[in-house]
Write a structure and sequence with these properties.
The chain is an alpha/beta fold. The chain contains seven helices and 18 strands. The strands form four sheets. Strands 13-12-11-10-14-15-18 form a seven-stranded mixed beta sheet, sandwiched between helices. A six-stranded antiparallel beta sheet has the order 7-6-9-4-5-8. Strand 6 and strand 7 form a beta hairpin. Helix 4 packs parallel to helix 5. The N and C termini lie far apart (about 50 Å).
Amino acid sequence: MSIRCEFDRGIIEGGEILTEYIYSPKPALIKQVKQETSDIKSFELELKDKKEKLNFIPGQYLEVSVLGAGEFPVSPFSPPAKGRIEICVKKMGKVTTALHRLEVGETVWVRGPYGNGFPVKEWEGKKLILIGGGIGLPPLRSLLYYTMDKRKCKELILIYGARSRKDLIREKELLGLRDKGVKVHLSIDREEEGWREFVGFVPTNLLQISPPSGNSIAVTCGPPIMIKFVIKNLLELGFKPDQIFMTLEMKMKCGLGKCGRCNVGSVYVCRDGPVFSYERLKQLPPEY
């Protein structure tokens, strides 16, 4: 008689593990570390098991843990790729500080992916406007390169800014995307010597650029105050709530909808998000 049991590590039937659940952390080797800004580093990770791969949709997230410190949710910085993934992490608390201390050759643990991700198939043939600030770049960069690779969007516009030039992530790389047909608009909050791009806040730059709303989708990620005014300005430009998408990640913790930190009414951001349209967001209680 065959016995079938389900555990967090997988489904066992007749003594054989048939599948691995996404709840099981997988060891990953740090292959490269890059100092992006004074308090932000990017890490290229490679799963130790060469047969494993992380199949994710841009907008989904991973739970990354450092032994002895804990774990935290993070959006991939890179598009889906077999066996390897990039994350971009700001040093903010105990776990991220511990990660920043690690070097090439050391091990972290990764589980996931979790969440809904961006509905990229529904956006085929549309203009895609990506609007980000500071550490809000990673999910947008993942989506940008995924879209470029699939060649499914009619036009790509990136509007990205930070407090100062030294706080911009991958400035040179992003400007180089202009040669590949991406309309890139960078900004810093205050004027600096040698800066030839826009000076001012991201929502203001958005109004100056005034991307057309027809057949367009806008995606924004960044500080909550930036998102608030980006949405306001997009509505002024004629975008409808179902054309505006964002990621809500600040309160997520477990990734399973169990700890209760990220619930808003009956919705768990970690499970039902982190991607929401503004139309959906307006239906939630005012916690966000």
